[in-house]
Amino acid sequence: TDQFKLDTKCGFVAIVGRPNVGKSTLMNHLLGQKISITSRKPQTTRHQILGIWTEDKTQMVFVDTPGMHRGQEKAINRVMNKAADTALSDIDAVLMVVDRTVWTEEDQWVLDKLQRIKAPVFLIINKVDQLDNKQTLLPHIEALSKKFNFASVVPVSALHGHNLDSLTDELVNTMPAGLFHFPEDQVTDRSQRFMAAEIIREKIMRQLGEELPYSTAVEIEQFAFEDRILHIHGLILVERNGQKRIVIGEKGARIKKVGQEARQDMESLFEAKVMLNLWVKVKGGWADDERALKSLGYYD
Ligand code: GDP
Ligand code: K
Ligand code: MG
């Protein structure tokens, strides 16, 4: 009866797409806060991460996923595919992100995976700020609409925040009635420790993306307040000695820059003064070893 009708709405929104189309950038800008790390390097995102948006009577829980891709050779790739798949099992809307009017085999592969999803799928045509010829957009949208019954096709620029308000409005309308899953002021499901590791990994990816393999990992060995200062010790794990030299750089210049940029982001995210120490250590061949991945937390 009327008396039990909920006046709040809450739902999960999965963000999917091939690597590098701008999924994490989109989530951060929808939230108005940097939760998920981004870089030009494909597969920067390795973990499924929740970004929680709450306004008035609606809560939307965005699920940023590692890019869906077919490469299965290494254990780390299997883990990433699994994380991307589980994101689709219990959700209320899907944002499939593509890069302008480019349509690759991988995009098609992602779309094929969405055929079994019951939730509405929104096609997000991202990076329109970089579209050379705007005339190509409409015919492209028409062709894609024949491939799939999208709830809506929304051209946006995640990076510049163009058209995100109307996307947010459409999503709010789609959310089912329900109680909030998280407290109103919570922005992610991840711990501060995890966020610290991700910030360090982002700086490494951005500065050394081309020179390092995906197997570079970061562990936080210390995360503690002392005299109102947050003391963080981060351990950067690489596969080979040569990579260790690259991360450290000439006279330690690179690791210093990574540390400076990471510290700045940490201070604004944690709203505290941060003392950051970084080390680099060689850990042989763990990208191929699922047990080692497990101990580093790459499984949920
Ligand atoms: P993901 O792998 O799908 O999560 O992609 P990211 O969010 O990491 O973005 C990949 C790259 O595309 C980064 O260098 C972003 O800055 C860039 N990018 C994302 N969205 C836009 C956009 O709307 N316009 C432009 N010009 N670049 C974008
Ligand atoms: K990326
Ligand atoms: Mg990402």
Report what the structure shows.
By secondary structure, this protein is of the alpha/beta class. It is 34% helix and 23% strand. It is built from nine helices and nine strands. The strands form two sheets. It has a six-stranded mixed sheet with strand order 2-3-1-4-5-6, sandwiched between helices. Strands 7-8-9 form a three-stranded mixed sheet. Strand 5 (121-126), helix 4 (137-147) and strand 6 (152-155) form a beta-alpha-beta unit. Bound molecules: guanosine-5'-diphosphate, potassium ion (K) and magnesium ion. Potassium ion binds next to loops.
How is the secondary structure organized here?
Elements: E1 9-16, H1 23-31, E2 49-55, E3 58-64, H2 75-86, E4 93-99, H3 105-114, E5 121-126, H4 137-147, E6 152-155, H5 164-174, H6 192-208, E7 217-226, E8 229-238, H7 241-248, H8 253-270, E9 273-282, H9 290-295
Parallel strand pairs: 1-3, 1-4, 4-5, 5-6, 8-9
Antiparallel strand pairs: 2-3, 7-8
The protein binds guanosine-5'-diphosphate, potassium ion (K) and magnesium ion (MG).
- Biggest sheet: strands side by side, in what order? 2-3-1-4-5-6
The quaternary organization reads as single chain
Question: What is the rounded Rg?
Answer: 20 Å
Which percent bin holds the helix content? 25-40%
Shape: globular
Mean pLDDT across residues: 86
Order of helices and strands: EHEEHEHEHEHHEEHHEH
Described by strand count, sense and barrel closure, the largest sheet is: 6 strands, mixed
Helical stretch count?
9
Unreliable segments of 5+ consecutive residues: none
Strand percentage: 15-25%
Bound molecules: guanosine-5'-diphosphate, potassium ion, magnesium ion
Class per helix and strand makeup:
alpha/beta
Topology, number of strands: 9
